[in-house]
Amino acid sequence: MPSRKTVKRFLMLILSTFAVFLLSACSSEQFIVLNPKGPVGEVQANLIFVSFLVLMIVIIPVLLLFFFIVYRYRDKPGNKSPYKPEWDDNVKLEVVWWGIPIILIAILSILTVRDTLVLQGPPSEDVEPITIQVTSLDWKWLFQYPEEDIATVNYLKIPVDTPVQFELTSDAPINSFWIPQLGGQRYSLPGKSSTLWLEAEEAGTYYGTANNFSGDGFTEMNFDVSTVPDADFDKWVEEVKATNQPFTMEDYQELVKPSIVGVSAYSSIPPNLFEFIVDKNGGKYYKSNNHTEQFDNSRQLELGN
Amino acid sequence: MIESIKNFSSDFFVTGDPLIYGADVSIVLVMVAIIFVLTYFKKWKWLWSEWLTTVDHKKIGIMYLIASLLMLFRGGVDAILMRTQLAFPNMDFLPSDKYNEIFTTHGTIMILFMAMPLMFALFNMVVPLQIGARDVAYPFLNAVSFWTFFFGAMLFNLSFVIGGSPDAGWLSYAPLSETQFSEGPGQNYYIWGIQISGIGSLASGINFLVTILKMRAPGMKLMKMPMFSWSVLSSCIIIIFAFPILTVTLGLLFIDRYFGANFFTLAGGGNPMYYVNLIWMWGHPEVYLVVLPAFGVFSEVVATFSKKKIFGYKSMVFALLSISLLSFFTWVHHFFTMADYKVDAFFAITTMAIAIPTGVKVFNWMFTMFRGRIQMKPPMLWTIAFIPTFLVGGATGVMLAVAPADFQYHNSYFLIAHFHQVLIGGVVFGFFSGIYYWWPKIFGFSLNEKLGLWAFWLWNIGFYVTFMPQYALGFMGMPRRVSTYGWDMGWAPLNFISTIGAFLMGAGFIFQVWQIVYSIKHRNKEGAADPWDGRTLEWSIPSPPPEYNFAIIPKVSEQDDWWYKKQKGLTKVKEDYKPIHMPKNSGIPFIMGGFWFITGFGLTFEWTWMGIIGLIGVATSIVVRHLDNDTDYYIPVDEIERTEARIGGTR
């Protein structure tokens, strides 16, 4: 048996390594999920804190009780604590510990349902939202701005204090679109378009990533999201329009092929490309897709697929 | 001609990687060593007649144990390779394609070829002894279960050196796992390795359910049955309902891949979301069915080493059964990020609800210790380590169940930390506790406690060092399954710490192997029949038990019957032997497993002729068995007397 001293030293060594690393390397800024920069992320971070707190209120006393029991009833000669080998039932106690988790779960259920409903709509009601159509490909992201008629690959620019409605789909395996500092993720599915509302409150550059494994280049699928004031956003749109080529169907067919690419931007997008992507992957079989315009099959031929 | 053989073999064998060549060499060396040892010591006949053809549940249990420890080694090496790759940013140790293969095989092996067989090892080693039966209800089927599991696992592992490993994740979501994105045999290996061993799992589920319901000793009413057997019963109920879903799902995926159907492909009206739903309709009950028997182990161990009756027996039984039921109503929580919000809210609540019976169990274990006398023996140490680990793991589970917050945890390292905490802290600690507890019963000697203590601390410290930083990494936005990362996100220090922990757990495993080897060499047979002053029937017979387990089937009158018999001095039984009816050994399960292997291998490479030959072999084995009437025999009374005198049975 390792002597108590060795075990203790060993533990100390590990704990101190831990502490050094934690202090030197991780400032709280790096816990991006807990440092949200938008209302959706805030709702979620709050929910994380509250649920953690509620659970700790129960877990910590239980842990203390556990260690107390293990210590007090250990089998040592001279232990004077009571020993009742036949005591195996107590209705009052049982009611208490069926009751504790039930109450706990009830509280958390209420919070869950409340916030699930909150996150359904646009984060700010009084501002006109913008829409961005997101397509996950092997292994890059295509972002289309239908209202601005521009597109970008592997980077996003959005105005601050404006709700953004992301419409997500995939022309590759299932992926997940995640910008931790703005809020939680949502899956991008082939043949389906799903909606994710996010909004930024502060100008800055945030980390975005693919978050559902999609094959060899998955690791490379992260992207920067920069959030800028309204005026700068409009300026940027004009700049993109002025300095880039239009995005054509041929460009798209090229982009769909598995590859890892850098960032790029395009001055215009083919009409209804997003609907085309959804429908070509079987989207026509869903009634729940939220794009209203059914993609016309004759146009599909025209677009070369 | 030579050229075409060359071409074939460069596709067939995985080439170009030193890891794989290393594996090739060691596989060949181990095979040569095994053949040499068996031939040199003239053990071939022994191997065949004592092990490969056995239908004795105890020996089958031992084979399950050996196989699952080997798989724990394989899965553990995978884990260490992954952690090495992630130790520093921008590492080039494993390129992304190899990394993808390794996390896929790590997950699949650990759940299906490590946790499941380790669980079946415990079922086999304990259940018949605990309920006072002479074997399981269907001994031949039990052997079939083992050999289909074994050959399925071997098929899956073969992919590493022949054809290439699967690389679409342990649940292989469609469409990534479809031919369009995953060509080649890897994904077929996944399908057939799991399908073939799945036959064994389902058959075992049925077998143990029937065993428990029909073969309990007289007087052992269900509500007097030991808690471990209750947990096995609950687990078997889940197996029977969950495994057919897996079989169908993988069957459909295979039809997609082999015949070009469109169940889960994009075109033709198929839907990948069907796959995600179906696989988790099996996958979620799966994790509960492996953890329930661990709960059973803890219940036995806590009562035995607190020298006290289990607290709240009825409530424990109710909790077990309600977990079996609830486990089928939570699967959507694996993809809140895909589902509709109303669906999310419903499944968030059902998921949290499962914490209620689980929490109650923790309280009952604690109050079993309360007013008891706790002995810190090895099985109890693992149980005591389990409770706080599982409490925290359960709490993070409830955090994950809060659907809107899950959008931030999903697929991040927070999730990885959570499920490893419940699977290692719950299932692995539980099964280790069980193995330490019942080892003397099955093998007739005890394990060295000093080495076990080293293993215990290394595993525990290693566990916390590995997984606590991963919770933090989740909050730092690190996605699972990334093969490398840069310096910019600040993930480096915590990843490095996590890697240290993985190596500590690896060292813990090495100590366990050492412990087993050491204890085999220095056998300590003292008091192996009832070393822990046990409470249940398995401790009333000699260790290791004779092939028929009980010379005289005990009559049960109490819960913890053996404890009360000892208290009242009623341990002597009248030696009134009768001939014992036993099943005969059979080579058919082994041969049938071999044919399944041929079937699986053929279908993996899409060599239909080979698949058909294999299936004909399987069918022939079944027919041959059906026509065989010579499947049982009686052990005469004088032989029982001789055996009992020799092993000092029937005290």
UniProtKB/TrEMBL annotation, chain A:
Its main location: membrane. Its EC number is 1.10.3.-. It catalyses: 2 a quinol + O2 = 2 a quinone + 2 H2O. Residues 127-239 form the Cytochrome oxidase subunit II copper A binding domain. GO terms for cellular component: plasma membrane. It comes from the Bacteria. It is a multi-pass membrane protein. PANTHER family: CYTOCHROME BO(3) UBIQUINOL OXIDASE SUBUNIT 2, CYTOCHROME C OXIDASE, SUBUNIT II. Belongs to the cytochrome c oxidase subunit 2 family. This is Quinol oxidase subunit 2. It comes from Aquibacillus salsiterrae.
Automatic annotation (TrEMBL), chain B:
PROSITE patterns: COX1 (PS50855). The chain crosses the membrane at residues 20-41, 62-82, 102-127, 139-162, 189-210, 230-255, 287-305, 317-339, 345-367, 379-403, 415-439, 451-472, 492-514, 587-603, 609-627. Residues 42-557 form the Cytochrome oxidase subunit I profile domain. InterPro entries: Cyt_c_oxase-like_su1_dom, Cyt_c_oxase-like_su1_sf, Cyt_C_Oxase_1. One of its GO terms (molecular function) is metal ion binding. It comes from the Bacteria. Keywords: Cell membrane, Copper, Electron transport, Heme, Iron, Membrane, Metal-binding, Respiratory chain, Translocase, Transmembrane, Transmembrane helix, Transport. The keyword Glycoprotein does not apply. Its EC number is 7.1.1.9. Pathway: Energy metabolism; oxidative phosphorylation. This is Cytochrome c oxidase subunit 1.
